[in-house]
Amino acid sequence: MSTTIYRAKSIITLNGYRPRAQAVAVRDGRILSVGTLDECLAWGPADIDDSFADKILMPGMVEAHGHSAEAMLLSIPYVGFYDIPLPDGSRAPGVKSYEQLVDVLKAADAALPDGEVLMANGFDPIFFEGQPRLDASILDQVSTTRQIYVRHASGHLATVNTALLDAEGIAADTETPGVPRDASGKPTGELQEAPAMSLATAASHKFMVLNGNPEGLFDYGRLCRNAGVTTTTELVGLFMLVPESVAVWQDVVNRDEFPTRMSVYNVPGIPGIPADYAAAAKKALDFQSLATDKLRIGGIKLVGDGSLQGWTACCGAPGYFTGEDHGLAQFTQEDLDLAVTTFHEAGLQIYLHANGDATVDQFIQAVDKALRKTAWLDHRHTAQHSQTTTSSQYRAMARLGIAANIFTNHIWYWGDQHYAQVMGPERVERMWAVKSASDMGVSVTYHSDSGVTPTSQLHTAWCAVNRVTPSGRVLGEAEKVDVETALRAVTIEAAFQLHMDHEIGTIEAGKLADFAVLESDPLECDPMALRDIKVWGTVVGGVIYEAEGN
Questions:
Q1: 98: alpha, beta or left, given left = phi > 0 and alpha = psi -120 to 50?
Q2: pLDDT tens, 205-231?
Q3: Contact predicate 506/21, CB 8 Å
């Protein structure tokens, strides 16, 4: 077996006992030694590679809440507010007005064959304060004959036109929750949460097709590589719902040229609709035999509530600051108890989507009941998003071993809206409580929820460090963390939550040779410049993947 020693300007190991190094020796995809060049050479003959002599190496960043839809949905029009990165290193422009939205959709309508549903992704009406909420009448300006489906940035809501409402029979007498009506009793065109969104059957089918696109899956790997992410996740794994997708994932992710590791957490059914959890647990355990070096099979993903900016997350007293509370609990307490206990007893880790503190309460109760019945001290069940979780809840989570994957990117992308519309000036100060949670003994990582915000763990870390919004407002000065703490959150803590901390997350002997290659040192730069550090590329299992757009 040959050995390659990579020299760097500096190596940030995050391993504690040897925080800095100058060289790292790699053999057979694993780290042989990290330290000085002489220390690495002491292991025997090696090739010295100076490709990174002027670069900074750090552990490959880990995205423990990702979605391949970030890239798979790039084949339909992007209509989000912010510009987003593309796999080739360029950027897609955002949509800043309803007028621009209509223009983009009209252009797409003109290019589509007759009868095909027009779909777009990423819009969020909350950015257009003072204007009427996006509804069917606005989309009718594009077409009164073609079905139109605009998926919101959160993925928890959509807005459709009248042609789609009529074609799908969504009317005043529709009983499915999440179909708001206007003063006359007619559906507005907004569909809230999965049961209501699935009423748009043609659009839902098209989304399923898009989510099985191998080119899109490969493009997601490219986006991760460009951001220095060497391990990411699919948090809406569809292996149970779309069995034919398994072969696609095996083929794409296991390719030598695919530039990241992926861990898939499968959903047991359509969110909001009770499932056969025992049967789902058996299938999930069977899927674990598919695991490879690059394709990992995680646990179970459950969806407990909706979106804060969509007013569909479940929040405790005093509720939302402004707007109508559309909180939609996706589980009764009894059903969540059953789901959590079933998967827990099967030895399957559970990730629960929980934006609102009321949903976190449900999760705490369910995990407590499961642990009282079946002891498992290292389950690492995790509250995903965990945006409004309170101090008392974090204390309970620490006692129960529940981790928190906190959606820090909201500070930048929706922080001003949370201050003015969603949570209000006081409670927004204790949202995304990364420092308090960690101080209380909770394992904390951050995420981009890729597809909702762009994949970039440097950006999620930047948010945790600076907590600044686009208007310049600082939200929660007391919850800021230092840069090293933030880097640990997006490396070793994220690896811990994926049950992979014995393999990745630090640069030390025996672990996989997964590195992010940076152009400047994050521990020496101005903290406000952290998100602007250029990523040269990655190393995954000793294989170099240069970012596009360099």
A1: alpha
A2: 998 888 889 999 999 999 999 999 999
A3: no
Kindly report the CA angle at 287 between 284 and 288, in degrees rounded to 5?
A: 95
Q: What residue ranges of the chain have pLDDT lower than 50? A: none
Which residue type does 304 have? G
Ordered by where they begin, the domains of the chain are 74-195 (3.10.310.70)
Rounded Cα distance between 462 and 386, Å, is 18
pLDDT at 247: 96
pLDDT given for residue 324 in this prediction: 85
Residue with tokens 């019945």: 373
CA distance 422 to 486: 26
User: Are the beta carbons of 367 and 354 closer than 8 angstroms?
Assistant: no
How far apart, in whole angstroms, are the C-alpha atoms of residue 291 and residue 57? Answer: 28
DSSP string, 95-155: --SHHHHHHHHHHHHHHSPTTPPEEEEEE-GGGSTTSPPP-HHHHTTT-SSS-EEEEETTS
Q: Using DSSP bridges, classify how beta strands 84-85 and 148-152 pair: parallel, antiparallel or unpaired.
A: unpaired
Predicted local confidence at residue 550, as pLDDT = 76
DSSP summary character for residue 187:
B
Please choose, from the candidates 156, 133, 150, 125, the residue with its C-alpha nearest in 3D space to the C-alpha of residue 306: 156
CB 444 within 8 A of CB 437: yes
DSSP 275: -
Reading phi first (left if > 0) and then psi (alpha if -120 to 50, else beta), residue 289 is in alpha
Give dist(CA 281, CA 24) in Å, integer: 41
Closest listed residue to residue 25, CA positions, set 13, 15, 12, 39 = 39
Which tens digits make up the pLDDT trace of 267-322? 999 888 999 999 999 999 999 999 999 999 999 999 999 999 999 999 999 999 99
Task: List the beta bridge partners of residue 524.
Answer: none
∠ CA 303-306-310, nearest 5°, is 160
pTM over 0.85, yes/no = yes
For residues 252 and 262, what is the distance between their CA atoms, to the nearest angstrom?
11
The closest alpha carbon to 326, from 192, 188, 149, belongs to: 192
User: Locate tokens 């593309």: which residue?
Assistant: 86
Q: Spell out the SS3 assignment of 370-398.
A: HHHHCCCCCCCCEEEECCCCCHHHHHHHH
Q: Residue 513: what residue type?
A: A
**Minimal CA–CA distance to 233: which of 263, 268, 267, 266?**
263
Place of tokens 């992979």: 500
Whether the bond into 259 is cis, omega within 30 of 0: no
The DSSP output letter for 502 is T
Element containing residue 487 per DSSP (H, E): helix 483-488
According to DSSP, the residues that pair with 518 across neighbouring strands are 56, 535
